[in-house]
Design a protein that fits this description.
The structure is a single chain. The chain is of the alpha/beta class. 51% of the residues lie in helices and 8% in strands. A 7-stranded mixed sheet has the order 1-7-6-5-2-3-4. α2 runs antiparallel to α4, α7 (174-191) packs antiparallel against α10 and α11 (289-300) packs across α12 (312-330). Pfam families: ARMT1-like_dom.
């Protein structure tokens, strides 16, 4: 795969089928226009509520027109046009990438992993070039309201993990730590089901049902490739090390990731956790710095975010953990680093070349955990891989670099590309349901051991 390039891949990329038969087409024709319509409608409401400045209202209407124009370009299959300078810091890289690899591409002829990130980068550009709305997070109300509505379930989960962590500290035998790690890792995996870019109309009832399934372990039989024990083999060798987590969704998934980080520090595996959020609003519910601090504040003071239905004991657990996590951030045991590479155009096999500063940061870690579907797709690329392709082969240079950390992917499958699955298991899954690769109901826990090999 030495000849691998974004427009010259070893297997065909996922492109919208002309007959409308694949998930890429469904996403481009239905799912993503729905998301963009929601952005426009929510922003219209924000404009109506803006009473401090007539100029902001006028500009808001102009931005609404720009968003509508973007949607028109998408649904009418216009070319992917260059970005305009917006001060984010990666415009030149995006435009160079477009010109080099996809100069003639339209929305329906570009690969899925080209047009979809480009869409969200275009949305960010529209807002960042404005005077009155340049810090506006067009997804924030949806992210926060979903989490707020599930605070009772959040409190139950926090109490469970708090108890589990205390037991591990009091009696840190290998078997107990191993079992606890399995539970924490799988909870972090299934937290990825609560993805607002995949389920934009996710109801509170469905969210609570998904949370119950996550906490009970009911979904664990749906892990179609599972390297958990191999990962534990590495984690059990780490003492006061550094673990990085490349985050995906805010809200309930972020909570699961933070609880995993809490456990790793509490039991002494990690001395430092480095979280990697997005610098700009991304894919509806991806974590920004603001989202991370909002979650900590929501636990420290549930009433301040409008939480209801909590018992005094629920609030006590939330406040205790929220205060602990605030202290971990203040003491730099937990660190946030929002590198621009995560919202750039390149897949992660290009980290050592196109994202070298970020890669040099990651190789300082003992293990890097990549969360979610988009991070998985950027690790392996959206290709029609043979399902049996080893994960290590698919991620390429970041697996074979002699300085590479252990790389772990926790992903619930929401796109029809996957590797590392036994062919017989895949055959059984296709017989069971044709959409298993993108239904969000199946997951993988995969490992590249890197220098731990």
């Amino acid at each position: 795969m030495d000849s691998f390039a974004p427009n010259n891949t070893p297997f065909p990329p996922l492109i919208a089928a002309k007959d409308g038969s694949n998930f890429t087409y469904t996403s481009l024709h239905d799912r993503v226009p729905h998301i963009l319509t929601d952005v426009i409608n929510d922003f219209y409401t924000a404009i109506q509520n803006r009473t401090d400045s007539d100029e902001a209202v006028i500009e808001g209407k102009q931005l609404t027109s720009a968003l509508s124009q973007l949607k028109h370009e998408m649904v009418t299959d216009k070319p992917l046009t260059p970005l305009e300078e917006d001060g984010i810091g990666d415009t030149a890289k995006w435009n160079s990438w477009l010109a080099k690899y996809f100069p003639q591409s339209t929305w329906y002829t570009a690969p899925f992993l080209a047009w979809e990130p480009y869409l969200y980068r275009r949305i960010a550009m529209i807002f960042r070039r404005s005077q009155y709305w340049n810090t506006y997070d067009f997804f924030v109300s949806k992210k926060e309201s979903t989490f707020r509505a599930s605070m009772v379930a959040v409190a139950k989960l926090c109490a469970r993990v708090d108890k589990l962590t205390r037991e591990c500290i009091e009696d840190p035998n290998t078997t107990k730590l191993h079992l606890a790690f399995v539970e924490m890792l799988q909870a972090s995996l299934w937290g990825n089901q609560t993805d607002l870019s995949m389920f934009p109309d996710l109801s509170n009832e469905r969210l609570e049902e998904m949370q119950a399934q996550i906490s009970s372990g009911e979904n664990n039989s749906k892990i179609v490739a599972n390297d958990t024990d191999k990962i534990w083999g590495i984690m059990s060798q780490i003492s006061k090390g550094r673990i990085d987590i490349v985050l995906d969704n805010s809200g309930f998934e972020l909570l699961q990731d933070v609880l995993l980080a809490h456990w790793l520090v509490s039991v002494g595996i990690a001395q430092q956790i480095v979280f990697h959020p997005k610098r700009i609003p991304w894919y509806v519910s991806d974590v920004t710095n603001q989202d991370f601090y909002w979650l900590i504040n929501a636990l420290q003071d549930p009433q301040s975010v409008g939480a209801s239905g909590l018992s005094p004991s629920d609030e006590a657990v939330l406040k205790s953990l929220g205060n602990q996590w605030s202290s971990l951030l203040a003491s730099k045991v937990w660190v946030l680093k929002d590198e621009l590479f995560w919202t750039g155009p390149y897949g992660y096999r290009y980290l050592p070349s196109e994202g070298n500063d970020t890669w040099m940061e990651l190789v300082d870690a003992d293990c890097v955990i990549f969360k979610g579907d988009l991070n998985y797709r950027k690790l392996i690329y959206d290709l029609q891989w043979p399902v049996s392709t080893p994960f290590i082969d698919a991620i390429g240079p970041i697996a074979t670099d002699p300085n590479a950390p252990a790389i772990v992917s926790l992903r619930t499958a929401k796109c029809d590309t996957i590797v590392g699955v036994d062919p017989q298991r895949a055959k059984e899954l296709f017989a069971l349901r044709k959409d298993w690769m993108y239904s969000g109901e199946y997951g993988v826990i995969q490992l590249s051991p890197g220098r731990w090999n």
